[in-house]
Amino acid sequence: MDVGLPGHVARHIIPAPTPEILHHLTTTLTTPGTWLKLCAPADHVASLLPAPWTVMDREFMMTVPLARTRTPQAPPGYTLAVTTRAGVTAARLLTAAGEVAARGQFAVAGSAAVVDQVETAANHRRRGLGTVIMRTLSSTAASLGARTGILVATADGQALYETLGWTLHTPMTAVVLT
Fold it and tell me: If you count DSSP H runs as helices and E runs as strands, how many of each does the chain have, helices first?
């Protein structure tokens, strides 16, 4: 998928990375900033990656059953905005000054909602904003017919998602062509 961010041009998700698949991808993909998200622990794939492919993160694919619930209220001092454009639904918590304090997005693929780019600004953390964003995304996705939520979490994010009922599906390894 196209990502379009500096240093993160495109992302390929590989559900079953074999030596043959990794050899093919690492020799045919040539654009710096191309990422591979591999459904495998780093120690299973790192030795199969030629330079200049670099292991960046150890991550965790997580899933949750989705159910329609009430969309949570924004905490005092914040406004919740939910928008959909080109099949991507984004939830943002905005300050009174219009600053994005927390955000996340998803797209529905079949019966799954794929959640991505969930983050809380550093100066707004530890206020429950990530929980509001995640509950909003889950509720909205369920109202659109999605039955399962899927995301790839960092080690820090994994703890939040577990408190919200998400469970580990598989370890992931993120690698990038530098």
Answer: 4, 10
